[in-house]
TrEMBL record:
<dbReference type="InterPro" id="IPR013766">
    <property type="entry name" value="Thioredoxin_domain"/>
</dbReference>
<keyword id="KW-1015">Disulfide bond</keyword>
<keyword id="KW-0249">Electron transport</keyword>
<dbReference type="InterPro" id="IPR005746">
    <property type="entry name" value="Thioredoxin"/>
</dbReference>
<feature type="active site" description="Nucleophile">
    <location>
        <position position="36"/>
    </location>
</feature>
<feature type="domain" description="Thioredoxin">
    <location>
        <begin position="1"/>
        <end position="109"/>
    </location>
</feature>
<feature type="site" description="Contributes to redox potential value">
    <location>
        <position position="35"/>
    </location>
</feature>
<dbReference type="InterPro" id="IPR036249">
    <property type="entry name" value="Thioredoxin-like_sf"/>
</dbReference>
<feature type="disulfide bond" description="Redox-active">
    <location>
        <begin position="33"/>
        <end position="36"/>
    </location>
</feature>
<protein>
    <recommendedName>
        <fullName>Thioredoxin</fullName>
    </recommendedName>
</protein>
<dbReference type="GO" id="GO:0015035">
    <property type="term" value="F:protein-disulfide reductase activity"/>
</dbReference>
<feature type="site" description="Contributes to redox potential value">
    <location>
        <position position="34"/>
    </location>
</feature>
<dbReference type="GO" id="GO:0005829">
    <property type="term" value="C:cytosol"/>
</dbReference>
<dbReference type="Pfam" id="PF00085">
    <property type="entry name" value="Thioredoxin"/>
</dbReference>
<dbReference type="InterPro" id="IPR017937">
    <property type="entry name" value="Thioredoxin_CS"/>
</dbReference>
<feature type="active site" description="Nucleophile">
    <location>
        <position position="33"/>
    </location>
</feature>
<dbReference type="GO" id="GO:0045454">
    <property type="term" value="P:cell redox homeostasis"/>
</dbReference>
Length: 115
């Protein structure tokens, strides 16, 4: 369904996240992680709500250790925000949807002028 958070992997990381022109939110998660399961529906809701404004991706850290290691993701869920291939913000741990929205709105406002 359009708007759902799409899966990203080591192989597609460069094209999907690093070379993206828009703001990209990446959820680093794993199947066994309880807090990740709590955050997953929020991430999907945000993908729908911000469709066309940001890209939302999910990266399974067990299946893609190379990317998780590159960004020193030590605990999950970790949400990284990328702009122009660089990490611009980071949230670690399960958070309420409101905190995600505040972060996204703030980043979109910052980058509106530099687009």
């Amino acid at each position: 369904m359009a708007g759902d958070a799409l899966k990203v992997e080591d192989a597609t990381w460069e094209a999907d996240v690093i070379k993206a022109s828009e703001l990209v939110m990446v959820d680093f998660w794993a199947v066994w992680c309880g807090p990740c399961q709590m955050v997953a529906p929020i991430v999907d809701e945000l993908a729908k709500e911000y469709s066309g404004k940001i890209k939302v991706r999910k990266l399974n850290t067990d299946e893609n250790p190379e990317v998780a290691g590159r960004y020193q993701v030590m605990s999950i869920p970790t949400i990284l925000f990328f702009k122009n291939g660089q990490v611009v913000e980071k949230l670690v741990g399960a958070r309420p949807k409101r905190q995600f929205k505040e972060m996204i709105d703030s980043l979109l406002a910052q980058h509106a002028g530099s687009a």
